[in-house]
Amino acid sequence: MATRATTPAGRRRPLSPRAGLTVLAVVVSAISVLPVLWMLSSSFKTRSTVTDGNLIPREFTVDNFVYVFTEVPFARYLWNSFFISALITAAALFFHSMAAYALARLRFPGREKLFGAIFATLLVTAPVVLIPLFLVARELGLLDSYAGLIIPAIFNAFGIFLLRQFYLGLPRELEEAAIVDGCGHWRVYWNIVLPMSRPILSALAIFFFLANWNAFVWPLVATNDQDLTVVQLGIASFTTQYASNWNYILAAATVAALPMLLLFFVFQRQIVESVKTSGLK
């Protein structure tokens, strides 16, 4: 008669791999969310209590937000960031999708070398090209203008690479059938490929918008006009030479972060689906 294996009394069963991963995910999530909660809580504290280390404010006030929107043109900063980020996102999606389609479907001499050169620019960090980019923008008269903030940020190898990988996974049958019916490459791209690219384009739109909403270094270098100040420079303006008004900084940071958090939560499904359909693991 078979006997059942029993565990010694008092010994706990070891956690399963699934339970261990769940615990790890909870811990990492708590560590990630805690700074956001601290920022949100501290934005309602007074200047004397903002660094007291308590998560719950002892003295609750909304004067920080009133100061941010009345004493400085913070609404103008938000509009500049939104306007610049929206234009960059729209232009980048248009040009990147065309370049990626050409690199994925059209056959021409040097196609792979051209893609390799574009992909290699991902290895070049932004500070390396900051001075050459500034000199070029100055020679073209783009400094202190919306054009100087928008045009240099449009072209990004990451978007071309991700879209090219997505297009390589699309079935060729639909495109070949359209070509047989007399459609040219432009009509195939506009009427067939582009509508099928909505998931990846939605995710890239979020990535591009977030990246340019949080831009700091290039706007700092390219502009001196206060009317062109973006939101990140506006937040930095609350830091004085001798001290930092942390209550105002955290209030402004909360105002700048909340729209982006809402944007992510609304479109998080598109982000996940785009990563799955683009072949990235």
TrEMBL record:
Keywords: Cell membrane, Membrane, Transmembrane, Transmembrane helix, Transport. PROSITE patterns: ABC_TM1. It is found in: Cell membrane. Its main location: membrane. Pfam families: BPD_transp_1 (PF00528). InterPro entries: MetI-like, MetI-like_sf. The chain crosses the membrane at residues 21-40, 77-102, 114-137, 143-163, 200-221, 246-267. It is a multi-pass membrane protein. Coiled coil: none annotated. Residues 78-267 form the ABC transmembrane type-1 domain. It comes from the Bacteria. One of its GO terms (biological process) is transmembrane transport. GO terms for cellular component: plasma membrane. Belongs to the binding-protein-dependent transport system permease family. This is Sugar ABC transporter permease.
